Structures are given as structure tokens and as C-alpha cells.
Amino acid sequence: MTPQARVQAAIEVLDAIIAAARSRGAPADRILSDWFRPRRFAGSGDRRSVRELVYAAIRRCGEVPPSGRAAMLLLAKDDPALASLFDGSRHAPEPREPGEPFAAAGAAPAWLEQALEKSGLDANEQSALLGRAPLDIRINALKAAEALLPEPGEPVAALHGRRFAPATPVEQWPAYQAGAIEVQDAGSQLVCEAVAARPGEAVVDLCAGAGGKTLALAAAMNDQGRILACDADRARLSRLAPRAARAGVTIAETRLLDPGREAAALADWTGVADAVLVDAPCSGTGTWRRNPEARWRLSESEVARLAALQARLMDVASGLVRPGGRLVYVVCSLLDAEGAGQVDTFLAGHPGWRAEPLHLPAGRPRGHGIRLTPAHDATDGFFVARLVRL
């Protein structure tokens, strides 16, 4: 593909991504893969170039762009070399017409920028949400002797974490195939450390997903005790068993939950758990480095819906914790409505609970918890709080 054809391809892919954002369709990475699948003439260099153009344009646009062309014109606005490729030649985009609009630049749609600002994130913090994320791994303490890495990586704040360049092929390393390492953001590792899971405890991972945090908790417990990993998504939860086998984890069992009926399904765990981790579904504002188009899919009503779900899940979790036990609430969101404000509301409605100070090697206090941000901590964005039942 010529450089001009790559730009035109990026415009076409962006059109599909914009349409999907408006209709809650497929994510950007899947759209890119689907677009290239029938176009076998595109080599690896073409694919890499188009992908880089697409994601650069997504990161540059705050509001949902009117079109892929408008998004790419914004990217070319301050890049003469890119602008010169809008020349109307074969397979190239047409030259920009006089007065043709650019997409709007920004960190996010205006309402969301304002919500982030009200949550204490200035322009620098918001801009950092759209940088490119590094690749972090967690060395599995259950198989640490097998974690012989071909390169040492950079230490991070998390106890067992290492950091590598984004494209490092860690999944091809023997250590990964042996279960000695897992790909996990340093921030995600730190919020697992906030659980302070110990050998012999009974722990519930209430929103386990595919089980990344479950595996980290099991390693912290030296694979001694009980972990119940729960989720309402059968496909995601089914991925835990093979991952656990690879990692040498034997104490994790899974339980599929029916949304709205979680308490009944967990009745046998009422008042039993030493710790319950609630890694609640959220807006994902802290993960935009990995999914920058996600900010185009949010709305104020969606954030309100998620906040209501989070509150309900905290209520469910509170019933599982034994007296003296702990509830650790986590969201990969930086909005106070889903973080500090959510914990304030819980404590106001649950007088038998108190917040316990956290002492993590990264992050800053926010309300009754700790907040991690890309700008300050070089991790994904998280809010975490630890609550103790009296």
C-alpha cells in the first residue's frame, strides 16, 4: 500500500469505529482485524501503519468525530507530511476543501471532561489517560523459580511486577507458557495487594471476569485456603480454569451468578468470607490508554446505571463478610461517582462498617480510599478502598 492508501484505509476503519461507538458495536481492535482479514494485499507494515494512524486519530479527538475523514484531517492539521497525502491521487483521500471542518480535539466529550475535572483530574491528568500503555507482567510467586525471563524488565511499585515495552512478545516466552508470569497492569496488581489475602483465608472475588485478580490472590495466599470466583458472564468465567491450571492454582472454584439474584446464589457464603473483592463493572475511564474509543461510548445515563449496579454489588458483598472481615472495593474508573462517592454512600448506609487506611507504594488518597492514575503512578487508573465489618 502507498502512504496515501494507508491514510485512506485509516479513514475507512475510523468510519466503522465511529459507527460502532454510536451503536455500541464491536470494539476498535476487532474492527481493525475484520477490516484487514479480506485484504490480503496489506502486509505487516501496512497493518502497523494503519493501526497507528487509527489510534492516533482516536486519541486526538475528544468528541465523537462526524466522520473518519474529519478525524484524520484533525491529525493532519499539525503534521504537514500527513496533510500532503490528501492529494486525490489513486487510492488517496481527496484534498481538503476550503473551510472543511476538522473533528474536535480534546481528552473526552465535554460532559466527561467536566466530570473528570470535578473528580480532581486536571488537563495534564486527563491527557495522560490517552497515552500508550506499557506492558506489565506479574511474576507468579507459586512458580517464581521458573520465572527465568529473557530480559529483566523494569521494576514497578507492585511487589511482583515488571514492565516492558508495549510490543514485547511475553506470551511466547517459556515462562509465560509455564504459568510463571501473567500479563497484568501494575495498578491491577496493587489493588490485589490491597486485599491483603493471606494463606488459609476464605476469599470471594465477586466480579472475577476471566480471573486475573483471582490468580494474583491465590498466589498471595500461597495456594492455601479457599477462593470463590464469581461472575455473570459465562464465557469470561470459563477462561479461569485453564489459566488456573497453568498457574498452579488449585484453591479457586467458580460460580456463575444470575444478575439480580447474587445473594441467593451465595447464601452458603453468608458471613463466611475473610475478604471479598468487588472489582465492580464501571465506566473504565482509567483504561483509556488501552481502549481510547471507549470514552465515545459513555453517557451520563450509563455512568448512573453503573453506579447503581456498583452500589447493589457492594450490598451483596457486605452480606458475605464475617465480623472483622474486609470488603475491598475497586473500580478502574477515575470518576468520584464510581469511586470515593460510592464508598461514602455505602458507609452512610451501613453503620456497621468503617474504612481502613491503605498503605500502598503508589497512589494518592481520595476520599476513604486510594486513587492511581497514569500521570502520577504510570499505571492504569484505579480507585480502591478497604472497608472492615465491625
Characterization of the model:
By secondary structure, the chain is α/β, with parallel strands linked by helices. It folds into two domains: 104 residues; 205 residues, Vaccinia Virus protein VP39 (Rossmann fold). The chain is 38% helix and 17% strand. The chain contains 16 helices and 13 strands. Strands 5, 6, 7, 8, 9, 10, 11, 12 and 13 form a nine-stranded mixed β-sheet that branches. The chain has a four-stranded antiparallel β-sheet with strand order 2-3-1-4. β2 and β3 form a beta hairpin. α1 crosses α2 and α9 crosses α10. The longest helix has 21 residues. It is globular.
Oligomer: single chain
Under CATH, the topology of the largest domain can be stated as Rossmann fold
Helices and strands, in N-to-C order? Answer: HHHHHHHEEEHEHEHEHHEHEHEHEEEHE
Averaged pLDDT, please?
Answer: 96
| The CATH homology group name of the largest domain | Vaccinia Virus protein VP39
What are its keywords?
390 residues, alpha/beta, Rossmann fold, 2 domains, 9-stranded mixed sheet
Structure summarized in a few sentences:
The protein has 2 domains: 3-106; 185-389, Vaccinia Virus protein VP39 (Rossmann fold), CATH 3.40.50.150.
Secondary structure topology:
Layout: H1 3-23, H2 28-36, H3 44-60, H4 68-77, H5 80-83, H6 110-118, H7 123-128, E1 135-139, E2 154-155, E3 161-164, H8 174-177, E4 181-183, H9 186-195, E5 202-205, H10 212-220, E6 226-231, H11 234-237, H12 240-247, E7 252-256, H13 262-265, E8 273-279, H14 300-318, E9 321-331, H15 340-349, E10 353-356, E11 364-366, E12 369-372, H16 374-377, E13 382-389
Helix pairs in contact: 1-2, 1-3, 1-4, 3-4, 9-10
